[in-house]
Protein backbone atom coordinates (compact mmCIF):
# COMPACT_ATOMS: atom_id res chain seq x y z
CA UNK A 1 0.00 0.00 0.00
CA UNK A 2 1.17 3.56 -0.75
CA UNK A 3 -0.03 6.39 1.47
CA UNK A 4 -1.71 9.11 -0.60
CA UNK A 5 0.14 12.27 -1.59
CA UNK A 6 -0.81 15.57 0.09
CA UNK A 7 -1.96 18.61 -1.85
CA UNK A 8 0.74 20.80 -3.40
CA UNK A 9 3.44 18.14 -3.32
CA UNK A 10 2.73 16.25 -6.52
CA UNK A 11 6.36 16.07 -7.66
CA UNK A 12 7.42 14.16 -4.55
CA UNK A 13 6.71 10.46 -4.53
CA UNK A 14 4.35 8.88 -2.01
CA UNK A 15 5.62 7.38 1.22
CA UNK A 16 5.45 3.64 1.74
CA UNK A 17 4.39 2.23 5.12
CA UNK A 18 7.94 0.86 5.52
CA UNK A 19 9.54 4.29 4.97
CA UNK A 20 6.97 5.91 7.24
CA UNK A 21 7.76 3.38 9.97
CA UNK A 22 11.51 4.11 9.62
CA UNK A 23 10.82 7.84 9.78
CA UNK A 24 8.53 7.47 12.80
CA UNK A 25 11.21 5.52 14.71
CA UNK A 26 13.76 8.23 13.97
CA UNK A 27 11.43 11.08 14.96
CA UNK A 28 10.60 9.27 18.20
CA UNK A 29 14.29 8.79 18.99
CA UNK A 30 15.28 12.37 18.10
CA UNK A 31 12.40 14.42 19.48
CA UNK A 32 10.12 12.08 21.44
CA UNK A 33 7.28 12.73 19.01
CA UNK A 34 4.86 9.88 18.56
CA UNK A 35 3.76 9.36 14.94
CA UNK A 36 1.02 6.75 14.51
CA UNK A 37 0.32 5.59 10.94
CA UNK A 38 -2.78 7.81 10.89
CA UNK A 39 -0.44 10.82 10.80
CA UNK A 40 1.26 9.71 7.57
CA UNK A 41 -0.60 12.19 5.32
CA UNK A 42 0.22 15.06 7.69
CA UNK A 43 3.88 14.04 7.92
CA UNK A 44 4.10 13.72 4.19
CA UNK A 45 2.56 17.14 3.62
CA UNK A 46 4.89 18.77 6.15
CA UNK A 47 8.07 17.12 4.86
CA UNK A 48 7.41 17.38 1.11
CA UNK A 49 8.96 20.85 1.09
CA UNK A 50 12.13 19.51 2.74
CA UNK A 51 12.32 16.67 0.21
CA UNK A 52 12.05 19.17 -2.65
CA UNK A 53 14.47 21.67 -1.07
CA UNK A 54 17.10 18.94 -0.97
CA UNK A 55 16.53 18.10 -4.64
CA UNK A 56 15.23 14.64 -3.80
CA UNK A 57 12.27 13.05 -5.54
CA UNK A 58 11.37 10.26 -3.16
CA UNK A 59 10.66 9.89 0.54
CA UNK A 60 12.77 6.74 0.51
CA UNK A 61 15.81 8.91 -0.36
CA UNK A 62 14.83 11.41 2.33
CA UNK A 63 14.55 8.73 5.00
CA UNK A 64 17.95 7.35 3.90
CA UNK A 65 19.44 10.83 4.23
CA UNK A 66 18.07 11.60 7.71
CA UNK A 67 19.03 8.12 8.92
CA UNK A 68 22.67 8.72 7.99
CA UNK A 69 25.73 9.86 9.95
CA UNK A 70 27.56 13.16 9.55
CA UNK A 71 26.76 16.84 9.63
CA UNK A 72 24.30 16.97 6.72
CA UNK A 73 22.21 14.17 8.21
CA UNK A 74 22.29 15.75 11.67
CA UNK A 75 21.26 19.15 10.29
CA UNK A 76 18.43 17.63 8.31
CA UNK A 77 17.19 15.72 11.36
CA UNK A 78 16.83 19.12 13.06
CA UNK A 79 14.97 20.54 10.05
CA UNK A 80 12.73 17.47 10.06
CA UNK A 81 11.79 17.99 13.71
CA UNK A 82 11.17 21.71 13.15
CA UNK A 83 8.85 20.84 10.26
CA UNK A 84 6.95 18.28 12.32
CA UNK A 85 6.48 20.21 15.57
CA UNK A 86 3.65 22.66 16.19
CA UNK A 87 4.69 26.08 17.47
CA UNK A 88 1.27 27.64 18.08
CA UNK A 89 1.31 29.86 21.16
CA UNK A 90 0.20 33.28 22.32
CA UNK A 91 0.50 35.73 25.19
CA UNK A 92 -1.71 34.89 28.20
CA UNK A 93 -2.72 31.54 26.70
CA UNK A 94 -5.00 29.63 29.12
CA UNK A 95 -5.35 32.71 31.35
CA UNK A 96 -6.61 30.78 34.40
CA UNK A 97 -3.02 29.62 34.95
CA UNK A 98 -1.81 33.20 35.19
CA UNK A 99 -4.67 34.09 37.56
CA UNK A 100 -3.68 31.17 39.82
CA UNK A 101 -0.05 32.21 39.61
CA UNK A 102 -0.78 35.80 40.63
CA UNK A 103 -3.18 34.90 43.42
CA UNK A 104 -1.60 31.83 44.99
CA UNK A 105 2.06 31.68 44.02
CA UNK A 106 3.58 35.08 43.32
CA UNK A 107 3.02 36.70 46.75
CA UNK A 108 5.29 34.16 48.48
CA UNK A 109 7.92 34.35 45.75
CA UNK A 110 7.95 38.15 45.78
CA UNK A 111 8.54 38.10 49.54
CA UNK A 112 11.39 35.64 49.10
CA UNK A 113 13.02 37.62 46.26
CA UNK A 114 12.77 40.84 48.26
CA UNK A 115 14.41 39.10 51.22
CA UNK A 116 17.38 38.29 48.96
CA UNK A 117 16.29 34.77 47.91
CA UNK A 118 16.42 33.19 44.47
CA UNK A 119 13.32 32.80 42.28
CA UNK A 120 13.37 30.71 39.11
CA UNK A 121 10.68 30.17 36.47
CA UNK A 122 10.94 27.76 33.52
CA UNK A 123 8.93 27.87 30.31
CA UNK A 124 9.76 24.41 28.88
CA UNK A 125 8.74 24.16 25.22
CA UNK A 126 8.47 27.94 25.03
CA UNK A 127 8.08 28.18 21.23
CA UNK A 128 8.43 31.84 20.17
CA UNK A 129 8.55 33.14 23.74
CA UNK A 130 5.09 34.55 24.42
CA UNK A 131 4.63 32.35 27.52
CA UNK A 132 8.01 33.39 28.97
CA UNK A 133 7.38 37.10 28.37
CA UNK A 134 3.91 36.77 29.89
CA UNK A 135 5.58 35.42 33.03
CA UNK A 136 8.15 38.22 32.97
CA UNK A 137 5.42 40.87 32.75
CA UNK A 138 3.55 39.35 35.69
CA UNK A 139 6.75 39.21 37.73
CA UNK A 140 7.34 42.89 36.95
CA UNK A 141 3.78 43.79 37.87
CA UNK A 142 4.28 42.08 41.23
CA UNK A 143 7.80 43.51 41.79
CA UNK A 144 8.86 46.28 39.43
CA UNK A 145 12.41 46.02 40.78
CA UNK A 146 12.66 42.33 39.69
CA UNK A 147 15.70 43.01 37.48
CA UNK A 148 17.68 44.06 40.54
CA UNK A 149 16.77 40.84 42.40
CA UNK A 150 17.76 37.20 41.83
CA UNK A 151 14.79 36.49 39.55
CA UNK A 152 14.93 34.75 36.17
CA UNK A 153 12.71 33.08 33.59
CA UNK A 154 14.39 30.29 31.63
CA UNK A 155 12.76 29.71 28.23
CA UNK A 156 13.76 26.53 26.37
CA UNK A 157 12.75 24.82 23.17
CA UNK A 158 14.05 22.23 20.76
CA UNK A 159 13.68 24.55 17.78
CA UNK A 160 16.41 27.15 17.24
CA UNK A 161 14.23 29.16 14.87
CA UNK A 162 11.45 29.80 17.35
CA UNK A 163 14.09 30.67 19.94
CA UNK A 164 15.51 33.29 17.55
CA UNK A 165 12.05 34.89 17.33
CA UNK A 166 11.78 34.82 21.11
CA UNK A 167 15.18 36.48 21.47
CA UNK A 168 14.24 39.12 18.90
CA UNK A 169 11.17 39.90 21.04
CA UNK A 170 9.35 41.26 17.98
CA UNK A 171 5.79 40.11 17.37
CA UNK A 172 3.02 40.88 14.88
CA UNK A 173 0.23 43.37 15.50
CA UNK A 174 -2.21 40.71 16.78
CA UNK A 175 -0.32 40.89 20.09
CA UNK A 176 -2.60 43.85 20.83
CA UNK A 177 -5.52 41.39 21.08
CA UNK A 178 -3.60 39.09 23.45
CA UNK A 179 -2.04 41.47 25.96
CA UNK A 180 -4.18 43.69 28.26
CA UNK A 181 -3.90 47.35 27.12
CA UNK A 182 -2.18 48.52 30.28
CA UNK A 183 0.55 45.88 29.98
CA UNK A 184 0.87 46.49 26.25
CA UNK A 185 1.52 50.18 26.92
CA UNK A 186 3.89 49.44 29.78
CA UNK A 187 6.02 46.64 28.35
CA UNK A 188 5.92 46.95 24.52
CA UNK A 189 6.86 49.50 21.94
CA UNK A 190 5.24 49.68 18.51
CA UNK A 191 7.46 48.88 15.53
CA UNK A 192 6.91 48.67 11.78
CA UNK A 193 7.37 45.21 10.24
CA UNK A 194 7.18 45.56 6.48
CA UNK A 195 3.66 46.77 5.74
CA UNK A 196 2.36 45.84 9.16
CA UNK A 197 2.66 47.43 12.59
CA UNK A 198 4.10 45.08 15.18
CA UNK A 199 5.28 45.16 18.79
CA UNK A 200 8.70 44.84 20.33
CA UNK A 201 9.07 43.63 23.92
CA UNK A 202 10.62 46.39 26.02
CA UNK A 203 13.85 46.11 28.00
CA UNK A 204 12.32 45.28 31.40
CA UNK A 205 10.78 41.88 30.46
CA UNK A 206 13.74 41.04 28.21
CA UNK A 207 16.21 41.35 31.06
CA UNK A 208 14.38 38.65 33.02
CA UNK A 209 14.15 36.03 30.23
CA UNK A 210 16.97 33.72 29.05
CA UNK A 211 16.37 31.65 25.91
CA UNK A 212 18.23 28.33 25.57
CA UNK A 213 18.01 25.41 23.17
CA UNK A 214 17.00 22.22 25.00
CA UNK A 215 15.58 18.93 23.78
CA UNK A 216 13.37 17.56 26.56
CA UNK A 217 14.19 13.96 25.70
CA UNK A 218 17.97 14.48 25.88
CA UNK A 219 20.10 15.19 28.97
CA UNK A 220 19.42 18.64 30.46
CA UNK A 221 22.43 20.79 31.35
CA UNK A 222 20.29 22.69 33.87
CA UNK A 223 21.61 23.25 37.37
CA UNK A 224 18.75 25.41 38.68
CA UNK A 225 15.82 24.20 40.78
CA UNK A 226 12.57 25.91 39.84
CA UNK A 227 9.70 27.51 41.73
CA UNK A 228 7.34 27.62 38.77
CA UNK A 229 7.39 25.44 35.63
CA UNK A 230 5.17 25.92 32.61
CA UNK A 231 5.35 22.88 30.32
CA UNK A 232 2.17 23.27 28.32
CA UNK A 233 1.11 21.70 25.05
CA UNK A 234 4.47 19.98 24.54
CA UNK A 235 4.25 16.40 25.89
CA UNK A 236 0.89 16.06 24.15
CA UNK A 237 2.91 14.97 21.09
CA UNK A 238 4.92 12.34 23.02
CA UNK A 239 4.04 8.70 23.68
CA UNK A 240 2.94 7.79 27.23
CA UNK A 241 6.34 6.47 28.37
CA UNK A 242 8.21 9.55 27.12
CA UNK A 243 5.62 11.84 28.68
CA UNK A 244 5.94 10.09 32.06
CA UNK A 245 9.72 10.30 31.87
CA UNK A 246 9.58 14.05 31.17
CA UNK A 247 7.26 14.65 34.16
CA UNK A 248 9.62 12.68 36.40
CA UNK A 249 12.65 14.60 35.22
CA UNK A 250 10.83 17.93 35.58
CA UNK A 251 9.88 16.99 39.15
CA UNK A 252 13.60 16.44 39.88
CA UNK A 253 14.22 20.05 38.85
CA UNK A 254 11.42 21.46 41.02
CA UNK A 255 11.78 22.73 44.58
CA UNK A 256 9.46 21.23 47.23
CA UNK A 257 6.15 23.14 47.14
CA UNK A 258 6.83 24.51 43.66
CA UNK A 259 4.16 24.38 40.95
CA UNK A 260 3.90 22.90 37.45
CA UNK A 261 1.32 24.10 34.92
CA UNK A 262 0.51 21.79 32.00
CA UNK A 263 -1.65 22.10 28.86
CA UNK A 264 -5.46 22.00 28.96
CA UNK A 265 -5.64 18.55 27.36
CA UNK A 266 -2.81 17.04 29.44
CA UNK A 267 -3.06 15.26 32.80
CA UNK A 268 -0.60 13.84 35.31
CA UNK A 269 -1.60 10.57 36.95
CA UNK A 270 -0.71 11.43 40.55
CA UNK A 271 -1.28 7.82 41.67
CA UNK A 272 1.55 6.82 39.36
CA UNK A 273 3.66 9.95 40.02
CA UNK A 274 2.98 10.71 43.71
CA UNK A 275 5.64 13.43 43.82
CA UNK A 276 2.89 15.61 42.29
CA UNK A 277 -0.33 16.69 43.99
CA UNK A 278 -3.13 18.27 41.95
CA UNK A 279 -3.55 21.95 42.82
CA UNK A 280 -6.19 23.47 40.54
CA UNK A 281 -6.97 23.03 36.86
CA UNK A 282 -4.00 21.34 35.14
CA UNK A 283 -1.71 22.57 37.92
CA UNK A 284 0.41 20.33 40.18
CA UNK A 285 2.46 20.98 43.29
CA UNK A 286 5.72 19.17 43.89
CA UNK A 287 5.21 17.37 47.19
C1 LIG B 1 2.53 24.07 20.81
S1 LIG B 1 4.07 24.75 21.32
C2 LIG B 1 3.69 25.19 23.00
C3 LIG B 1 4.17 26.58 23.35
C4 LIG B 1 3.73 27.05 24.74
N1 LIG B 1 4.23 26.18 25.76
C5 LIG B 1 2.23 27.18 24.82
O1 LIG B 1 1.57 26.34 25.43
O2 LIG B 1 1.70 28.13 24.25
C6 LIG B 1 5.05 23.25 21.52
C7 LIG B 1 6.54 23.52 21.52
O3 LIG B 1 7.20 22.35 22.02
C8 LIG B 1 8.43 22.23 21.35
N2 LIG B 1 8.90 20.84 21.46
C9 LIG B 1 8.41 19.73 20.86
N3 LIG B 1 9.15 18.66 21.17
C10 LIG B 1 10.14 19.10 21.99
C11 LIG B 1 11.24 18.47 22.64
N4 LIG B 1 11.49 17.16 22.50
N5 LIG B 1 12.05 19.23 23.41
C12 LIG B 1 11.82 20.56 23.55
N6 LIG B 1 10.81 21.21 22.95
C13 LIG B 1 9.98 20.49 22.18
C14 LIG B 1 8.11 22.65 19.92
O4 LIG B 1 9.28 23.04 19.22
C15 LIG B 1 7.11 23.78 20.14
O5 LIG B 1 7.75 25.03 20.10
UniProtKB/TrEMBL annotation:
Catalyzed reaction equations: L-glutamyl-[protein] + S-adenosyl-L-methionine = [protein]-L-glutamate 5-O-methyl ester + S-adenosyl-L-homocysteine
Enzyme Commission code: 2.1.1.80
GO MF annotations, alphabetized: protein-glutamate O-methyltransferase activity
Top-level EC class as recorded in UniProt: transferase
Top-level taxon of the source organism: Bacteria
UniProt key word Transferase: yes
InterPro entries: Bact_Chemotaxis_MeTrfase (IPR050903), Chemotaxis_MeTrfase_CheR (IPR026024), CheR_C (IPR022642), CheR_MeTrfase (IPR000780), CheR_N (IPR022641), CheR_N_sf (IPR036804), SAM-dependent_MTases_sf (IPR029063)
BP-aspect Gene Ontology terms: methylation
Residues annotated as binding S-adenosyl-L-methionine: 87, 89, 93, 131, 157, 215-216, 232-233
Domain CheR-type methyltransferase: 8-287
Entry keywords, A to Z: Methyltransferase, S-adenosyl-L-methionine, Transferase
Described function: Methylation of the membrane-bound methyl-accepting chemotaxis proteins (MCP) to form gamma-glutamyl methyl ester residues in MCP.
Designated name of the protein: Chemotaxis protein methyltransferase
Organism: Amaricoccus macauensis
